[in-house]
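Collaboration report, partner site 2.

Our partner group contributed sequences for two proteins of shared interest, and the home lab folded both. The records are reproduced in the order in which they were received, starting with the first partner submission.
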Amino acid sequence: MKYKDYYAILGVDRGADEEAIKKAYRKLARKYHPDVSKEKGAEDKFKEVAEAYQTLTDKEKRAAYDQLGRHRSGEEFRPSRDWETRFGGIDMEDFDLSDLFSRMGGGLGGGFGGRSRGKQARAGQDYEARAQVSLEDAAHGAELSLNLAAPERDVHGLPRSVGKQVRIRVPKGVTDGQRLRVPGKGGTGMNGGPAGDLYLDIEFKPHRWFKSAGHDLYLELPIAPWEAVLGTEVHVPTLDGKLSLKIKPGARTGQKLRIPGKGLPRPGSGAGDLYCVLQVITPEQPSTRERSLYEDLKRESNFDPRAHLKE
């Protein structure tokens, strides 16, 4: 049979603990998940990673795998006589590694050393998924329906990707890039074991007005030159409707005006802030009258915006 280096596939040391193996698997599962990956051969790589994970997180399978010794990936080899005797005494020519270790779930030759064992309860596999939510959903909470391409095992224990639909509740106050754990929404447990968990990566959809930074929101607010000079009062949008904002005379581009509590809600209580970033905008096609007034202003004004460059 051909040897597969499961440790190399996951990118972990042979002495890695279960937490390190799970962490490596989650990272690679996100990278090669068929729903999101653009990598060439992603689906095959995804199955290979799932196969390595299933073997190395099962104590008995891992112990048996480690006793195969070290070989190069893809190298043809045959387990030792002692290994064959201990783990079933069958002709190994009929199996590859994935088939071999999947059959160990029910025991080769009735179990390790030929002794019958009861089926052990095993927790279901954890899933990874990405959820795109709007700012409004983040502000008020929402229920989402997700179609997952979930890694599972078929009746022979071989890895495969199956479709699964789950409904989840996204709590209000989530932030862009946040990772949520949804208990019990992962793979089905085996032999009475609990279901795995779903790890959900939150990604905000682009908004026509706002950008987020944590729980704060930012809005680019255009104002006319005369509004910047003379001051004004304008209506600005928020996630809860419009409100009035007073702009003092002498406003400038890039100036930030803070509106407390009008950002995204924080878990528990309170909310972030809304920052209006002023942008002084000139008319693209001024009328004849407007142009005349600007020329009058040019003649009358002593203002020099570049005076500091002449020092």
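Second partner submission, folded after the first:
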Amino acid sequence: MKAVLDGVQRWRHELSNCLHSCIGVALTRHGIDALVVLGSRWQFYYRPGDLRREEYFWPCPPGVSLAQTLMPYHPISSRWHQPADAAQGWQQVRERILAGEPALVAVDNFWLPFRPAYQDVHSNHLVAVYGFDDEADLVWINDGVPPAFDGPMAGKHLDASRDSDNPIVHDRDLFFTANPIGNKWLSIDRDPDAPAPPDLATMLRTNVRDFLDPEPVDGYVGLGGIEAFLRDSADRLAIGEAIAEETFVVAGTAVASAALHASALRALASQHNNPLLAEVALAVDRVAHHWTAIRILVNTIEQSEVDRLRYRTDQLMADCGRALAEVSRVADALAQEGQQTCRPRFTASS
């Protein structure tokens, strides 16, 4: 049997990761504006001890799904699938494709010929699988992460990558190894029972509220959570603890959240001819770049240089506070104009 889905397009935001790229593939195939959906929410949350060695790691509060955390304003649902073994995993992926939807499949880059890490570095990555040919032993893969790939590949490579133990073999196996892939995969669906997305003013006000006055949860959350997380990281570094892996990965989620939000605001500014949105996008972009600097810093910093991390934290906190104030000001302006005047387009064609 052969089945290859049509309408599959590569999606990529340069400061996001493979999770967003794959979700973008699933959304755009149905004409959904992936940038607006993925960029409407700006957030910070991390629960200590919840770090997972995956490129697609995204911290979610206990009992809250990935879609509810990442895309709470839009009628999208998600589910992680944990098959019992490789055979069941492939059967599930195959059935997903036959049902007309791509499967977002966890893989080890070491076994994928189109990845630069092929036969060199192990890493827990995510790709969209959207076709198969049983007789030719081919599978169709869409991977938007550079160098990017879209097309058929021998099925044996996917089999090896999704069932890999993902081991640490040498000192180049960093961050996303020592975590077996386990044939894990993700489904993303439109939820017909969810309410329609709110207006932009409501989204922005919710984001600001959840930064400044978040609901109590177990972990670092909101603006206070950012400061506590980074200051705790600096204190740990000062006493000689290793912080690079945790801070690098968590900061990566913060980069993506801020950068996607800034890009979504810029797109909405163009759609609605609203210069206020373009201005606030610059302020949020600045926060994303602070987080990028922190990711670089924690991979090179020595214990004796801990004040560099503290200084960078001060700069991030100041600019994040200014950006939130700007977002709040723009949200108030939009609400005064009338909430229907700037409603994000859920679908790209509407």
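Feedback sent to the partner group on the second submission included the following. The chain has a mean pLDDT of 93. Residues 306-337 form the longest helix (32 residues).
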